[in-house]
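Lab notebook, bench 4. Continuing the backlog of folding jobs that were queued last week. Each job is logged with the same field layout so the records can be merged later without manual cleanup. Today's entry covers THUMP-like domain-containing protein, a 393-residue chain. Filled in by technician R.K.

JOB TYPE: sequence-to-structure
TARGET: THUMP-like domain-containing protein
LENGTH: 393
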Amino acid sequence: MNKAILNNKVQSFLSEHLTANVTSILLSKPLFGEVTNAELVDQIEAKKRTEKKLPLWFDTKGIYYPNKLNIEQTSSERTALYKASLVSGNSLIDITGGYGVDAYYFSRNITEVVHCEINEYLSDIVDYNRDLLNANNITCVKGDGVAYLENTITFFDWIYIDPSRRNDKKGKVFMLSDCLPDVPKHLELLFSKTNKILVKTSPVLDISKGLEELTNVLEIHIVAVNNEVKELLWILEKDFTGVPQLVTVNLTHTKREEFTFSLMAEQGAVSTFAEPQKYLYEPNAAILKSGAFKLMASHFKVNKLHMHSHLYTSNDLIDFPGRSFRIEEVIRFQKKVIKQRFQNTKANITARNFPDKPDVFKKQFKMKDGGEVYLFLTTDMNNKKIVIVASKV
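JOB STATUS: finished
OUTPUT FIELD FOLLOWS
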């Protein structure tokens, strides 16, 4: 890291130019002797990305930023706080430390945290920032986390891993064994150094595939923020051989929606079906990711519209983990009727078990997003295509 960036004049420049045109800065003559204009732009672009994602870092004077890609890949404060709520004890090692956001929040619940990062530049940044953040119980180690475990005699209360989700080939990785580090391959080593492992994976990972690759899975936490799934968290416990619990969490601006169940419960659940009644419910994104479709109907005593629609209905309003609507009207999907009713209007459109996606529907009927009207394009229990006109409860 270039410590000249920490100069007061440079720091003032960065704060004053967060909304500046970075291209003009790049094309300007050198502004500071020991800091290039490209470095200034890197700091500005990275800091801007932390304003909402990492407000503690953004508001702390003198924070050093890595490149913007590192900021994009790191946990948000909200998800890091949630992860930290899952651990406790005297010692934790983060073997894929990154920018140190998770390690910081772990350090609030754990007596001693070891942050391993193979990228020396990034490790230096975390080591510097931890003092500004008063996280002196974090020890920064430069090097490969797996190699560190192989050589240490320390037995940790927890090991945390956020494996890299890309390999040497282009494209997304869908198998844990293709990630770095290879968690399934190193499970024996990991369990020789701890009894509890917390693994963060991409939300695109198929849960059933993860269960095929991992053993001793105690819990799987599906974490969404404002109805967008951000990460899957796998808690592995040495010698555990039972059925995993799935914990779905949706962190909204105003509340925390949580629903916990076992895989066996979903397999044994039975759904009831009905045509649209007075109220309509759409599960949050975490539940949709979990696959608890039959269980939603039986647990909350609501009816599904169709086996594959994953929309629910009832005559009495209930507290449901997701969005709730009052059904105003149900229309059979006939293009002539839809055109007369909705062409050139505005609505919020959702499609569930319907041949057309919302964008196709909007284009076909010259509609725009927004307004107070909600349209659900779906299929009912009689396999008829319908449009449900609804308003928010």
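OBSERVATION: The chain has 16 helices and 16 strands.
SIGNED: R.K.
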